[in-house]
Design brief:
The complex is a heterodimer. Chain A is mainly alpha-helical. Chain A has 2 domains: 100 residues, Rna Polymerase Sigma Factor, Chain: A, CATH 1.10.1740; 92 residues, Arc Repressor Mutant, subunit A (Orthogonal Bundle), CATH 1.10.10.10. Chain A is built from 9 helices and no strands. In chain A, α1 crosses α2 and α6 packs across α9. The longest helix of chain A is centred in the first third of the chain and has 23 residues. The radius of gyration of chain A is 19 Å and the shape is elongated. By secondary structure, chain B is an all-alpha fold. Chain B contains 8 helices and no strands. The longest helix of chain B is centred in the middle third of the chain and has 20 residues. The chains are: A mainly alpha, B mainly alpha. The interface between A and B is large, with 47 and 32 residues.
Amino acid sequence: MPYDAMSDSSDEDLLAAYAAGEPAAARALTQRLGPKAFGVAMRMLKDRAEAEDVAQEALLRLWRAAPGWRAGEAKVSTWLYRVVSNLCIDRIRKARGGHVDLDAVAEPPDPARSAEQDLQETARGAALQAALDTLPERQKQAVILRHLEGLSNPEIAEIMDIGVRAVESLTARGRKALEGLLGARRAELGYDDD
Amino acid sequence: MTDKRKAEEAGLGPWFDAGRAEAPAPSGDWLARMEAMALEEQRAPAVAVMPERESRGVRLRDLLRVLGGWPAVAGLAAACAAGVWFGAVSPATFSDWTSVATVSDSYTTFEPASGFDVAMLGY
Protein backbone atom coordinates (compact mmCIF):
# COMPACT_ATOMS: atom_id res chain seq x y z
CA MET A 1 0.00 0.00 0.00
CA PRO A 2 1.50 3.40 -0.91
CA TYR A 3 2.28 5.86 1.88
CA ASP A 4 -0.34 8.41 0.75
CA ALA A 5 -3.08 5.81 0.80
CA MET A 6 -2.37 5.22 4.46
CA SER A 7 -3.26 8.71 5.65
CA ASP A 8 -6.92 7.71 6.00
CA SER A 9 -6.22 4.39 7.68
CA SER A 10 -6.86 3.96 11.37
CA ASP A 11 -3.96 3.44 13.76
CA GLU A 12 -5.12 -0.13 14.29
CA ASP A 13 -5.12 -0.89 10.55
CA LEU A 14 -1.69 0.66 10.20
CA LEU A 15 -0.35 -1.40 13.06
CA ALA A 16 -1.71 -4.56 11.45
CA ALA A 17 -0.02 -3.53 8.19
CA TYR A 18 3.17 -2.86 10.11
CA ALA A 19 3.04 -6.33 11.64
CA ALA A 20 2.49 -7.75 8.17
CA GLY A 21 5.77 -6.19 7.08
CA GLU A 22 4.50 -3.15 5.16
CA PRO A 23 7.29 -0.52 5.26
CA ALA A 24 4.91 2.33 4.39
CA ALA A 25 2.95 1.53 7.55
CA ALA A 26 6.11 1.91 9.62
CA ARG A 27 6.68 5.36 8.15
CA ALA A 28 3.04 6.46 8.46
CA LEU A 29 2.74 5.33 12.07
CA THR A 30 6.01 6.98 13.04
CA GLN A 31 4.91 10.28 11.50
CA ARG A 32 1.52 10.03 13.19
CA LEU A 33 2.41 8.73 16.64
CA GLY A 34 5.98 9.93 17.10
CA PRO A 35 5.04 13.61 17.57
CA LYS A 36 2.18 12.65 19.93
CA ALA A 37 4.45 10.54 22.12
CA PHE A 38 7.14 13.19 22.11
CA GLY A 39 4.68 16.03 22.80
CA VAL A 40 3.21 14.45 25.93
CA ALA A 41 6.64 13.42 27.20
CA MET A 42 7.98 16.92 26.63
CA ARG A 43 5.09 18.55 28.50
CA MET A 44 5.52 16.13 31.38
CA LEU A 45 9.31 16.15 31.64
CA LYS A 46 10.26 19.60 30.30
CA ASP A 47 13.50 18.18 28.94
CA ARG A 48 13.96 17.50 25.24
CA ALA A 49 16.56 14.73 25.61
CA GLU A 50 14.51 12.95 28.26
CA ALA A 51 11.34 13.32 26.23
CA GLU A 52 13.06 11.87 23.16
CA ASP A 53 14.29 8.89 25.19
CA VAL A 54 10.85 8.22 26.63
CA ALA A 55 9.06 8.56 23.29
CA GLN A 56 11.64 6.30 21.64
CA GLU A 57 11.17 3.65 24.32
CA ALA A 58 7.39 3.82 23.96
CA LEU A 59 7.57 3.48 20.17
CA LEU A 60 9.98 0.57 20.47
CA ARG A 61 7.52 -1.20 22.76
CA LEU A 62 4.76 -0.55 20.25
CA TRP A 63 6.73 -2.08 17.36
CA ARG A 64 7.49 -5.13 19.46
CA ALA A 65 3.87 -5.47 20.56
CA ALA A 66 2.60 -5.18 16.98
CA PRO A 67 2.79 -8.89 16.00
CA GLY A 68 0.65 -9.90 18.98
CA TRP A 69 -1.73 -6.92 18.89
CA ARG A 70 -5.34 -7.97 19.33
CA ALA A 71 -7.61 -5.78 17.25
CA GLY A 72 -10.40 -4.09 19.16
CA GLU A 73 -8.89 -4.65 22.56
CA ALA A 74 -7.24 -1.26 22.97
CA LYS A 75 -6.81 1.88 20.91
CA VAL A 76 -3.24 2.21 19.70
CA SER A 77 -2.99 5.87 20.67
CA THR A 78 -4.45 5.20 24.14
CA TRP A 79 -1.97 2.37 24.67
CA LEU A 80 0.89 4.61 23.56
CA TYR A 81 -0.17 7.52 25.78
CA ARG A 82 -0.36 5.11 28.69
CA VAL A 83 3.16 3.80 28.10
CA VAL A 84 4.54 7.32 27.69
CA SER A 85 2.77 8.53 30.85
CA ASN A 86 4.06 5.64 32.93
CA LEU A 87 7.61 6.09 31.66
CA CYS A 88 7.44 9.82 32.43
CA ILE A 89 6.20 9.20 35.97
CA ASP A 90 8.98 6.66 36.50
CA ARG A 91 11.53 9.26 35.43
CA ILE A 92 10.00 11.97 37.59
CA ARG A 93 10.12 9.62 40.58
CA LYS A 94 13.75 8.77 39.95
CA ALA A 95 14.66 12.41 39.46
CA ARG A 96 13.10 13.22 42.81
CA GLY A 97 15.12 10.45 44.36
CA GLY A 98 12.37 8.45 45.89
CA HIS A 99 8.75 7.79 46.31
CA VAL A 100 6.17 10.27 45.15
CA ASP A 101 2.66 9.81 46.47
CA LEU A 102 0.76 10.33 43.26
CA ASP A 103 -2.58 10.23 44.98
CA ALA A 104 -1.70 13.04 47.30
CA VAL A 105 -3.31 16.20 46.09
CA ALA A 106 -1.43 19.30 47.00
CA GLU A 107 -3.09 22.58 47.70
CA PRO A 108 -2.93 24.97 44.78
CA PRO A 109 0.26 27.02 44.97
CA ASP A 110 0.20 30.66 45.91
CA PRO A 111 -0.70 32.48 42.68
CA ALA A 112 1.30 35.57 43.56
CA ARG A 113 4.45 33.55 44.15
CA SER A 114 4.07 31.60 40.93
CA ALA A 115 3.31 34.73 38.93
CA GLU A 116 6.45 36.29 40.29
CA GLN A 117 8.47 33.24 39.29
CA ASP A 118 6.96 33.30 35.83
CA LEU A 119 7.61 36.96 35.13
CA GLN A 120 10.36 36.00 32.72
CA GLU A 121 7.91 34.07 30.59
CA THR A 122 6.47 36.14 27.82
CA ALA A 123 4.66 33.66 25.60
CA ARG A 124 1.18 32.56 26.58
CA GLY A 125 1.93 28.92 25.86
CA ALA A 126 5.06 29.09 27.95
CA ALA A 127 3.11 30.70 30.78
CA LEU A 128 0.57 27.88 30.64
CA GLN A 129 3.35 25.30 30.70
CA ALA A 130 4.96 27.02 33.65
CA ALA A 131 1.65 26.97 35.49
CA LEU A 132 1.12 23.32 34.60
CA ASP A 133 4.52 22.49 36.03
CA THR A 134 3.41 23.64 39.46
CA LEU A 135 0.50 21.18 39.58
CA PRO A 136 0.71 17.80 41.31
CA GLU A 137 1.78 15.15 38.79
CA ARG A 138 -1.59 13.46 38.41
CA GLN A 139 -3.45 16.74 37.95
CA LYS A 140 -0.89 17.87 35.42
CA GLN A 141 -1.10 14.59 33.54
CA ALA A 142 -4.90 14.68 33.44
CA VAL A 143 -5.05 18.33 32.33
CA ILE A 144 -2.46 17.78 29.59
CA LEU A 145 -4.27 14.75 28.22
CA ARG A 146 -7.68 16.41 28.43
CA HIS A 147 -7.05 19.97 27.32
CA LEU A 148 -3.83 19.85 25.30
CA GLU A 149 -4.02 16.40 23.73
CA GLY A 150 -7.81 16.53 23.41
CA LEU A 151 -8.60 13.07 24.77
CA SER A 152 -11.95 12.05 26.19
CA ASN A 153 -12.38 11.36 29.89
CA PRO A 154 -12.87 7.59 29.38
CA GLU A 155 -9.64 7.46 27.36
CA ILE A 156 -7.78 9.32 30.09
CA ALA A 157 -9.27 7.01 32.70
CA GLU A 158 -7.86 4.05 30.78
CA ILE A 159 -4.46 5.68 30.40
CA MET A 160 -4.22 6.62 34.07
CA ASP A 161 -5.87 3.44 35.29
CA ILE A 162 -8.51 5.27 37.32
CA GLY A 163 -12.24 5.89 37.04
CA VAL A 164 -13.85 8.54 34.87
CA ARG A 165 -15.06 10.43 37.94
CA ALA A 166 -11.53 10.54 39.29
CA VAL A 167 -10.39 12.01 35.97
CA GLU A 168 -13.10 14.65 36.15
CA SER A 169 -12.07 15.48 39.69
CA LEU A 170 -8.38 15.74 38.77
CA THR A 171 -9.02 17.96 35.76
CA ALA A 172 -11.42 20.16 37.72
CA ARG A 173 -8.88 20.70 40.50
CA GLY A 174 -6.16 21.27 37.93
CA ARG A 175 -8.21 23.90 36.11
CA LYS A 176 -9.04 25.63 39.36
CA ALA A 177 -5.38 25.82 40.26
CA LEU A 178 -4.51 27.09 36.78
CA GLU A 179 -7.17 29.78 36.99
CA GLY A 180 -5.59 30.97 40.20
CA LEU A 181 -2.13 30.93 38.69
CA LEU A 182 -2.91 32.44 35.32
CA GLY A 183 -5.66 34.85 36.32
CA ALA A 184 -3.07 37.20 37.72
CA ARG A 185 -1.28 37.27 34.39
CA ARG A 186 -4.21 37.99 32.10
CA ALA A 187 -3.43 41.68 31.71
CA GLU A 188 0.30 41.05 31.47
CA LEU A 189 -0.10 38.68 28.55
CA GLY A 190 -2.75 40.71 26.82
CA TYR A 191 -5.79 38.53 27.47
CA ASP A 192 -7.83 41.42 28.79
CA ASP A 193 -7.56 42.95 25.32
CA ASP A 194 -9.00 39.80 23.61
CA MET B 1 -13.19 20.36 20.26
CA THR B 2 -16.26 19.02 21.99
CA ASP B 3 -18.77 21.41 23.55
CA LYS B 4 -18.26 19.71 26.88
CA ARG B 5 -14.54 20.36 26.84
CA LYS B 6 -15.11 23.94 25.70
CA ALA B 7 -17.50 24.48 28.59
CA GLU B 8 -15.00 23.00 31.01
CA GLU B 9 -12.25 25.28 29.79
CA ALA B 10 -14.36 28.44 30.09
CA GLY B 11 -12.02 31.26 31.06
CA LEU B 12 -8.97 29.10 30.53
CA GLY B 13 -9.90 28.52 26.88
CA PRO B 14 -7.49 31.11 25.45
CA TRP B 15 -4.66 29.71 27.56
CA PHE B 16 -5.29 26.20 26.35
CA ASP B 17 -5.56 27.48 22.78
CA ALA B 18 -2.12 29.01 23.20
CA GLY B 19 -0.83 25.79 24.76
CA ARG B 20 -2.12 23.72 21.86
CA ALA B 21 -0.55 26.14 19.40
CA GLU B 22 2.76 25.89 21.25
CA ALA B 23 2.79 22.08 21.15
CA PRO B 24 6.34 20.77 21.51
CA ALA B 25 7.47 19.26 18.22
CA PRO B 26 10.20 16.67 17.78
CA SER B 27 13.16 17.43 15.54
CA GLY B 28 13.27 16.06 12.02
CA ASP B 29 16.43 14.19 12.91
CA TRP B 30 14.72 12.40 15.79
CA LEU B 31 11.74 11.49 13.62
CA ALA B 32 14.08 10.12 10.95
CA ARG B 33 15.81 8.00 13.58
CA MET B 34 12.44 6.74 14.84
CA GLU B 35 11.45 5.81 11.31
CA ALA B 36 14.70 3.91 10.82
CA MET B 37 14.13 2.13 14.14
CA ALA B 38 10.58 1.18 13.13
CA LEU B 39 11.82 -0.31 9.85
CA GLU B 40 14.65 -2.13 11.58
CA GLU B 41 12.28 -3.64 14.17
CA GLN B 42 9.92 -4.64 11.39
CA ARG B 43 12.68 -6.59 9.64
CA ALA B 44 13.87 -8.25 12.84
CA PRO B 45 12.46 -11.72 13.47
CA ALA B 46 9.57 -11.56 15.86
CA VAL B 47 10.57 -12.41 19.38
CA ALA B 48 7.79 -14.06 21.29
CA VAL B 49 7.52 -12.31 24.62
CA MET B 50 5.67 -14.66 26.90
CA PRO B 51 4.79 -14.28 30.54
CA GLU B 52 6.89 -16.30 32.98
CA ARG B 53 4.04 -18.68 33.74
CA GLU B 54 3.56 -19.54 30.09
CA SER B 55 7.25 -20.09 29.44
CA ARG B 56 7.31 -22.60 32.31
CA GLY B 57 4.44 -24.39 30.60
CA VAL B 58 6.44 -24.57 27.39
CA ARG B 59 9.34 -26.25 29.17
CA LEU B 60 6.98 -28.85 30.70
CA ARG B 61 5.45 -29.58 27.32
CA ASP B 62 8.91 -30.06 25.82
CA LEU B 63 9.84 -32.49 28.56
CA LEU B 64 6.64 -34.49 28.05
CA ARG B 65 7.27 -34.68 24.33
CA VAL B 66 10.82 -35.96 24.87
CA LEU B 67 9.54 -38.67 27.24
CA GLY B 68 6.91 -39.87 24.76
CA GLY B 69 3.81 -37.97 25.77
CA TRP B 70 1.34 -38.37 28.61
CA PRO B 71 0.76 -42.19 28.23
CA ALA B 72 4.48 -42.87 28.46
CA VAL B 73 4.83 -40.57 31.44
CA ALA B 74 1.87 -42.30 33.14
CA GLY B 75 3.51 -45.71 32.63
CA LEU B 76 6.80 -44.36 33.94
CA ALA B 77 5.07 -42.96 37.01
CA ALA B 78 3.29 -46.31 37.66
CA ALA B 79 6.59 -48.19 37.37
CA CYS B 80 8.25 -45.75 39.75
CA ALA B 81 5.40 -46.14 42.25
CA ALA B 82 5.63 -49.96 42.06
CA GLY B 83 9.39 -49.77 42.64
CA VAL B 84 8.93 -47.59 45.67
CA TRP B 85 6.29 -49.97 47.01
CA PHE B 86 8.49 -53.03 46.49
CA GLY B 87 11.29 -51.25 48.26
CA ALA B 88 9.17 -50.09 51.16
CA VAL B 89 7.42 -53.34 52.15
CA SER B 90 9.13 -56.13 54.10
CA PRO B 91 11.17 -58.65 51.99
CA ALA B 92 9.28 -61.44 53.83
CA THR B 93 6.21 -60.54 51.86
CA PHE B 94 7.99 -61.73 48.76
CA SER B 95 9.31 -64.97 50.26
CA ASP B 96 6.93 -67.06 48.18
CA TRP B 97 8.00 -65.33 45.01
CA THR B 98 11.67 -65.76 45.73
CA SER B 99 11.65 -69.15 47.50
CA VAL B 100 12.66 -70.91 44.30
CA ALA B 101 16.06 -69.33 44.61
CA THR B 102 17.83 -69.36 47.96
CA VAL B 103 21.31 -68.41 48.93
CA SER B 104 22.31 -72.05 49.23
CA ASP B 105 21.18 -72.91 45.71
CA SER B 106 23.97 -73.15 43.26
CA TYR B 107 23.92 -71.87 39.76
CA THR B 108 23.33 -75.36 38.44
CA THR B 109 20.07 -75.67 40.38
CA PHE B 110 18.56 -73.61 37.62
CA GLU B 111 21.01 -74.26 34.84
CA PRO B 112 22.20 -77.88 34.97
CA ALA B 113 24.31 -77.43 31.89
CA SER B 114 27.01 -74.84 32.37
CA GLY B 115 27.92 -72.38 29.73
CA PHE B 116 31.00 -74.46 28.97
CA ASP B 117 28.90 -77.60 28.43
CA VAL B 118 26.56 -75.79 26.16
CA ALA B 119 29.48 -74.46 24.18
CA MET B 120 30.98 -77.94 23.87
CA LEU B 121 27.70 -79.36 22.59
CA GLY B 122 27.89 -76.90 19.75
CA TYR B 123 24.75 -74.92 20.50
